[in-house]
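Review box. Two proteins, two foldings.
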Amino acid sequence: MTMATPVLTIAPGLNDRLEGSDLGVQFTFGVTRAGDSTVPVSVGFRVTSTQASANDFLDKDLQVALDYPVGTLTMAAGETSKTISVVVSSDRFFEPDERFDITLFNPVDAVLGTQTTSSGIIRNDDPGDVLPVYRFAKISNGAYFFTGSLGERNQIIASFPDFRAEGVGFFAYAEASAGAPVYRFANLNNGGYFFTGSLAERDATIANYPNMRYEGSTFSVASSTAPGAQPVYRLANLTNGGYLYTTAAAERDAALSLGFWRNEGVSFYAPAPSVVTDPSDASLAWTELAPESAMTATPDSLWV
């Protein structure tokens, strides 16, 4: 009786693993044989990617690879399944998730089945580098401004004496792709600024409040589940339409005790570290500005 020609296939689907931070992480891909199992067979395999580079992989000696992995899988007589191992180089640097494909080719004493390619996703598990977000208080009315740009910070200090520098309010990711964007609006009525991490709130503000000038995405922040992430609380000043953003629950509570701040909950999450660098420098406009001295307005006329 003639045995059917061996047919080799690779398991479909997506092999998904964290990249880790030690020597390397192993991805395994199953190859199966159908048909005649009485003879030895072999097949080549190669890794390709448009996202991961060759040095994201380790060679057979567990050294950083100079080219994408290529090899041969052999099945002895009687074997009907075997695995291919691809080792990814671990690191401690933030980078986007990266996909790679592994493809079978050049079978010997066998043919390829319909499933010849499988894929892996190298999941980033490193936090992005963080940069400070600087905080300013507008002396004339207690409105707040935040910027992650050192150049913008320096320009404000040099050119706008009405804005008092209050150090670092919290931190944001250096790479925009490391987190979620925070959108900035300038209030044309009072010179204050509004920030939101909500795309829906951004769009509603653009559509419904012509006095709020949209200034784009200004910095990138963490998800609520990111290690060390700290909530950034948002408070609305009911006397001047300004907004305060703080990671300090004590500052939030002290502001609320004054009676003219409204608690609007957590606006977004700042990556660690997220501390004011020198609280002694921040005598804080919300403690100095009583409602009588703030910009004249009524809550009903404010953008809220």
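Next protein.
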Amino acid sequence: MMHYVRAGSGKPLFLIHGFLGTWRIFEEVMPKLALHYDVIAVDLPGQGKSDPDEDTKSVEHYAEAVLALQDELGIDQAVWIGHSLGGYIAQSAVERYPERLHAAVFAYATAVGANEELASFCKTLQQEVIEHGVGPFSERHIPRFFAERSDPKQIGFAIEVAKESSAAGILAALSAIASHPDQVETLKQATLPMLEVVGLYDHLQARYEAKSSYLTRVETPTSHMGFQDDPDLFASILMKWLDDRVFRSKVRNGGQQ
């Protein structure tokens, strides 16, 4: 079972971190959400305190791992909130397990699939991890996740978190990024509430159009790490959307929560 941290009570939310992250990347957001929800923040395989899994090398495999944890915890449906790579994982769940999701959030995560250029870049990064190790790799690349206006303390914290992961876990995550499928059509056709959070200063994720009455798009004046740049804003966006579009809407429509 993956390592996770759990807090609060109410409807269940899974927080799924991105590349070079662990559950700790949500440390400032999690207490705010836990005032209203049952929040489960995971360490993906090979990240943080979760052991590597040699069979987990794709977003589909990661989605299976999160779903296995959901099963272990006896949770029928949950909201999956994924950042970056975690967003790709949430998109995979929308495609493959929509009946197990109340809703899905894609925070600073494109739905555009990997191309040959990205796959080649990921191979280069894998070689860098092998040659130089997790520490130097994290110190070099984490600052690129942030904007010039970002707090240096937050950048330092993200580097500290990144160093908690194993080389094997990082290599597997890069394989998943290099092969993640295009999910634009999936989002257009899905019939569950979805939220896309886009950073105005996020230069890492490709923009896309997936018009759907089920998909809400919100922009934040932040970097790729918007929940660190402004955790209050990020939490308030999530809670308002959950209240307006996910749980309260089901009551208005006469459905079961």
